[in-house]
Amino acid sequence: MTDISRKDRLGFRLSRWHRRATAHLPELGLGGLVTAGGTFLLFQEELIKQLAGDLPTWLLAILALPLPIAAGWITHLVRRRRERPARPALAPMPFPDRPDGLVGRDAELQQVKDLALERGLVVVQGAMGSGTSSVAISAVWDLAGEARKQRYADLRGPDRKHPETALSVAQRVLRTLNRPPGGIQEPQDATAQVIEALNGTGCVLLLDNVSTWSQVDWLPTRVPGAHIVVAGTLSDELPQHAEPIQLGPLAPEAGRALLARHIGDDRVTQDPKALALLVDACLGSPLEIVRVGRWLAGNPNVPLRSLVDDLRNLSIDKTLDFVLNLSIKQLRPTAKQLFILLAGLPIAEVDHQAAAALLGVPSAGDAITELADFGLVENVRMTRVRVTGAFRDSGAAGTPQENAAWRRLVEHFAEQAAAYAARLPADEARTWFAMEDRVLLQVLAGAEPGRQTARALGRIADGLEAWFRLEQRHEDRLRAAAALSAAAKALGDERVQATAELRQCAIQLTWGDPRKARQHFTRAAELRVRVESWPAELHLEHAALLLAGGDEFTAVESALVRYGQALSGGDVTGHAIRMTNVAALLMRKGQTFDHDGRAPEARSLYADARAVLFRALDLAGRAGDPGAQAHAHELLALTHHYLGQGFDARSHLEQAERLYTETADETGRARCLVQRAGVLLEDPGHAAESVVALLEEAEPRLPPFGVSTALAHLHLGRLRGDRAAEHQDAGLAALSPWDGIAEPQQITELRALLQAL
């Protein structure tokens, strides 16, 4: 474990105090600045009187003009030498710059370009630090020199021990190609979208830092008029069509040339034999050669021979750590403290603002630059920093200083998540969450949440819920809610735990699984024993559960009444949702009356539901909630369909589909497609191919369970007799959450129709 001395720690604290004081200067305000400035001018006047009291008048007159000019010029020079501000993290991730002259990789570079033109999909594989990224980036620059034809995705996730899942990788690639990532349920669903986005464009897609082939095995093997390059370690076995270009150690001549580039020709000519021995000690790794070269460049007075003598007595596994330890000893206190904190983090990488939060200072740019110069950290993904692999988990963990730093980091992420969640769906907020969502998930799922981080963790979870709901990434929504529940339970915060359980209940209902939803609802209710103390959301989920689990309409109505009473008067969206659920209740009552042969009463209920939905639509419009508007339009389409008003039904269905598309709600849009297919099927002159096309577009976007999913398979089973058995099984599986529990009448009828296929 790397340690920091008391002297260095004192130096770090003094530096942090100075930076904090400087950062708080703007808080003085105009009055404070005038007061401080006036006091300073009085002292300055007295000082000038003391210094200039004995100078003659003619000399003072001569100095009066050039002195202000000289002072202004000196100030200008000082400001020019200051560090430029870091590049904003909200800009879209650009394609990396072309590497500055590869050494010893000309043959591999040409091979990548040739295979890209021949095959379309190329894999560049090599050990960590062998230069796979540099070779791949250089090849893509040669294949597509225009920025508009370059597409880049860095797949190196924030978790050091676990690579990103194939689904996460597919979602990141879709976002890179400007496609909604929430529209896929499985990685293979992204294959067709990648082909569609790249076909005939002349673009090159580079997937960098891939850990395993299983992350990208869903990629198309060829896209006409485009190229795909995969670069990384790829530890598992590759298929035959993806035979990789393997990067091995650098040849001795290339290694010496690379090291010479960093230390200069003068030192090379003084002791070429020592140079060769140093390259051998680096085992041909470009990363290690560069690291040794940077250290030697920063220590020009150290002879190469002395470093060789120090390394000669060490074993091979300790030679590289020796140089790194030399670098650490030369760090200034602030940089050393930052390195210790970063090395002990459970997160592999953070952005520069988060690094500053760890230190508790306004900016960490100088410390990061110092660490990067010694090769102790890597600057990745624009303004993000990652500790070099050799020193991961070497920091001090569990000490009061590290615990305080972790609390500052969690609070920093909470402030950022809350601020950007409030700006969604603005582009800058989307960009921030796209870069940080995996880091936020990992912070939320920390093994031992600090006692003082409960509120901050809740704000992080709220931000992730808003982001994942916008992207329709329900699996990630569930993961974030489960992590919040576990953290709240560990901290003994029942209110936050109840919120997390309710969130999981809502997600399971979205997935069409009332059994699991009931389990989470029960846990939330146990944390709120008295019904009077339930929050509004608990009453709403209770009503939704009752509606999904049977036809106990009186109990549903009672839950909706309690939901309305728990809402605040100014919650326009909440009241719109309440009215939409009341209309759904009326429609379900009408369906049961229809089934029992009571058509007039059913039509009356449908008409009442229509009136309520128009009021809900008006409220949702006043609240500016397109999701609530879309849901109201969707139910209005169904209501008009039951009333036999086909034109109005189609109109509302079109509005719902448009709004779901605008909000990237692929599940809602898929439900609309199933409804359109059902309307077409009732037309005697319908074209079967058109209906099948709608259902096949909807099916992969639907949740694994639920009425819409089962209905889609029922229609497909009737239209495609050769695959009727397959759709029968899939439809019955979609209704499996109701097996062995109470179910609504519509589920019973749908199950009977599927069994009759």
UniProtKB/TrEMBL annotation:
Keywords: Membrane, Transmembrane, Transmembrane helix. It comes from the Bacteria. The keyword Transport does not apply. The chain crosses the membrane at residues 21-43, 55-78. This is NB-ARC domain-containing protein. It comes from Nonomuraea fuscirosea.
